[in-house]
Specification:
With 162 residues, this protein is mainly alpha-helical. 54% of the residues lie in helices and 4% in strands. The protein has a domain at 56-157: Rna Polymerase Sigma Factor, Chain: A, CATH 1.10.1740.10. The chain has 6 helices and 2 strands, in the order αββααααα. It has a two-stranded antiparallel ribbon. α3 (75-94) runs antiparallel to α4, α3 (75-94) crosses α5 and α4 crosses α5.
Length: 162
Amino acid sequence: MGNDPDSVRACPNTAREGVTFFAAGSYIVRAMMARRRPARKRSAKGADEAVPGDTRAGVDERLLVEAAQSDPAKFDVLYEQHFARVYAFVAGRVRDRPTAEDLTSEVFHKALASLPRYEWRGVPFAAWLMRIAVNSIVDQAKRAARSSLPRTIRQRLRPMPA
């Protein structure tokens, strides 16, 4: 197969799902890529529904965060709202179900513990949760790497007692 355009073009009628065949019988297996979901048909937005550019959704979320800051028992609404997104984010990066579940739990535990220090800055609450998730994933990877090191190296990495 040379560099001429005919040898690079895909052969018609020979492509199957996930496999692309090229001239001269060679093929490349493509990983099944995430496919974008078809756009949902939108109904007419009512006055009480959030529309792009509307600050009502941000105000509602801000009120939920402030309520949770004053009473941690009200954090459950934020948890229910954001659990699926955080779990999907973590599971997509960890690729191990028990670890993803543990890390997701850790994310919400850290968020609840740090909620009194949270400052509303006009960005979605989910952005803060995702930052906690990224940090938890990195911490878990460091712990895993440390535990797989030989014992002599682990002893050298331990901080010296003061």
